[in-house]
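Exercise 7.
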Amino acid sequence: TEQAWTGMSVRLSVSPDEDGKVDAAVKTAQTLWRNQSEWDERLRARAIDDLLTLKNENWREESEAEVTPQEFARRMKPESVTVQPNGEFDFWFEDGDLFLGHGVSVAGSLAEGPTEAEIAG
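Solution. The predicted structure, written as tokens, is:
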């Protein structure tokens, strides 16, 4: 299903529990959406912490200036979210050509927040 996330349309996937029910995963999504500005900021901060140095040291063209944390966050565009019944989530972002079109994945849980970001695809 398509949902608005900080003013942008994202694809939301809800994973069922072992009984095939989606109630718990829907609650995960509701918690994220209720505070989406805060969660979006935390997701982007995790991506910056985990990937900005990699971008500037290994993925920059010779003539390209170093990417600032603000530019890195601005270039990431939310694309999809998968939520689990146990409170875990995985957000996928278009990379805004930070990593030559590879996506950026940020995973975590409601309890721990965003725990890791990586280049995907």
